[in-house]
Design goal:
It is built from five helices and 17 strands. It is mainly beta and about 300 residues long. It folds into two domains: about 160 residues, Chitinase A, domain 3 (Roll); about 140 residues, Chitinase A, domain 3 (Roll), CATH 3.10.50. The strands form four sheets. Strands 9, 12, 13, 14, 15, 16 and 17 form a seven-stranded antiparallel β-sheet that branches. Strands 3, 4, 5, 6, 7 and 8 form a six-stranded antiparallel β-sheet that branches. A two-stranded antiparallel ribbon has the order 1-2.
Length: about 300
Amino acid sequence: MRRAAALLLVLSSALAALALAGSGAGAAAGPLADVTVSADTTAKPAVTFSKPFAVKKTTNQVVTPGTGAALTKGQKIAFDYVLLDGRSGKELETSFGNTPGSLTLDKGKTATQLVAGLTGKTVGTRLLLAIAPKDGLAKQLNNPAVKKNDTLLFVIDVKSVRTPLARATGEAVAPVAGLPTVALAADGKPTVTVPAGAPAPTQLVVQPLIKGAGPAVTAEQTLTLQYDLEVWQSGKKIESTWDRGQAADIPLSSPGIISAWKAGLVGQTVGSQVLLVVPPDQGYGATGSSDGAIKGTDTLVFVVDILDAY
């Protein structure tokens, strides 16, 4: 799960460094007058400028105004992006041909400046940003090809907007004897209790706890999830998005996703809460996780809230 979400987490961290200012439409002006960005949002943007390009203050300019709904607080946006080094002109990262990025327009989850900069823009907007060295993004990238004093150019295409559920909601499903029990706090955070002394199942267990009324999940989708992960044998908690205070966006098609997630979540409905008991061969295998937190003999217990699928 961590590997699948890594790109999006890095991107979110990078975006959190931006201090967005300004608005407008049409040709770039002011500090961005020397940057040309293609306006056709159906294709990857072509960005041209004279090198080296630099700004002292982070600024932005609408290249192509969107015609969709205005972005409001609390919504989750999906976006494509291109990131370039203003000094060298080299492309550093892009989502085009890969999984779009995502973030939530909530000051408790995303940088205040970014929420302010995107709120009120519309779906379909292509936004050009020049990120000044003082905002620290160049340093955060930890890329040997990027110097800490480089200005970075970011082009963002706002693709869609969604409002994920805050927690699983729907019809409660009667618990099955012999499985871990799940008690929910007022905010939906689960507390998992593994049956004392019970042997771990040797086959994947997929047990809905709440049946949501949303659409069924497909294998090609990215899911917005809250999840809790514990080890059956020890009861040790390994990871929890509830503890982090932020849901995760995880593409089910990513090669880094364990097979049990694909087998257990495809076909479930948005709004559902699902208990997964995962034997080693459908989790991290005989070698365990790369960080050593999960051993090759560990059976995993997940509680997953499916908040959105796109």
